[in-house]
Every structure is written in structure tokens, then in C-alpha cells.
Amino acid sequence: MRVVIAGGHGKIALLLSGLLAGQGDTAVGLIRSEAHTADLQAAGAQAAVLDLEHSDAAQVARVLEGADAAVFAAGAGPGSGAQRKYTVDLGGAVLLAQAAQHAGVRRFVQISSMGAGRPAPAGSDESWTAYIDAKTRAEEDLRARDLDFTILRPGGLTAEPGTGLVTLSAGSLPRGTVPRRDVAAVVMWLLSTGAAAGLTLELTGGATPVSEAVAAFAGPARGQ
Description:
It is a single chain. The protein is globular. It is an alpha/beta fold. It has a 9-stranded mixed beta sheet, with helices on both faces. A two-stranded parallel ribbon has the order 8-10. It has 7 helices and 12 strands. Helix content is 39%, strand content 25%. It has a single domain (2-215), classed as Rossmann fold (3-Layer(aba) Sandwich). The chain has helices at 11-22, 37-43, 57-64, 82-103, 126-143, 180-193, 210-215, and strands at 2-6, 26-31, 46-49, 69-72, 107-111, 114-117, 148-154, 156-158, 165-169, 177-179, 199-205, 208-209. α1 crosses α6 (180-193). α4 links the parallel β4 (69-72) and β5.
């Protein structure tokens, strides 16, 4: 399986690349700077230098040609302003989905955020409000496309070692945290099994092995 990952130098993307490489798959990370190439190679991934903020769908589609799946794992990052939430978290996601359709890549996993789908709480700062709005609008765009998509909304991300145990739900979960490695593992299983097509899932740490949690959503594509 060949998987193209937007935000290839991000923490979840690098962990996902390592997991994919470990099972014999090919991960191709989209990166803005050639300086990040060595980090991707160390994780077992190939690098494609392409800036989603300064590219068009045709350029991205060329990288996606021949891929089996695309993953949107990019983000403007906590230190960025509100404007970049819209150019990366929204614009980048929309562009990757457009390119996937142009390239005929049907399987698409979008890493969103718990809290998306509703307005940010009153009193939230400008950056968080923009982030949640951008993620929500990116989700809405993806649901309108003819793709076998899964939207994954993890809770608060931690750098703790993965436990391999999660809670994965098609309904709303109480706010919680989840190690980035477990997020990567869930994405890997979603890609490997094709489970949860057409669904939006929330994810936190829990008590169910990742493989079992994902297998609960196996079956034909469903809309949500």
C-alpha cells in the first residue's frame, strides 16, 4: 500500500510512517522544506517537497498518482496565527481532497480535532476559535466529496508512549487525551482495513485494543 501523508514532518505523520514501513507499506510525506527529508527517511518514509499553501490541485495530484490512500495530518501548529489555521487546516485539507479526486485516490483519512463540528466555547481565544472553525469547515468539505473518507477527531494529544488501548466512537466522547502514537496506530488500522468509510470518529485513550476498536467499524461505506 502506498500512502501519501500531508504534513509529513509532523509528529503523528512520522509515527504513522514508521508503522506503515514496519508492515511493508510505502509512506510518502509531503513536506515544505527539503531540510526535513532526513527525518522522514529515518522514519522509513519517502519525501515529496510540496507546500500545500502554495500549490494547486494538479501539482498535488501528480504526487498522489498511484497511491492507495491519502492522509491529511497537517496543521498550522500552536504558535501560528488565526490566518494560517485557514490556509493550512482548512485550505490544505480541501486541496488534498481535491487532488485525491483528480488522481482517483478514493481512500482518505483526515485528522481533525475533538471539538470540531460545533462553535468554539465562549471566551476561547482567536487562534483556537479559528482552529475549530477551520477544522469544522474542512470536515464539511470532505463529507460533500465522493471519497471513501474517515474523519478522526482525537482528544488532547500527548507525547506519552502509546498504550495500544483506545476509545473510538461514532458519537461524542467526554473530553480526554490520547498519545500521538495511538492516533497513528488507529490511522494505520483504518488504512489497512478500510473500516469506518463515511464516518466521523472521536478518539481518546481507553481500554480497547486499537485493532478491535477499528474492527468495530468494519463494513460497507456509510454516510454520516
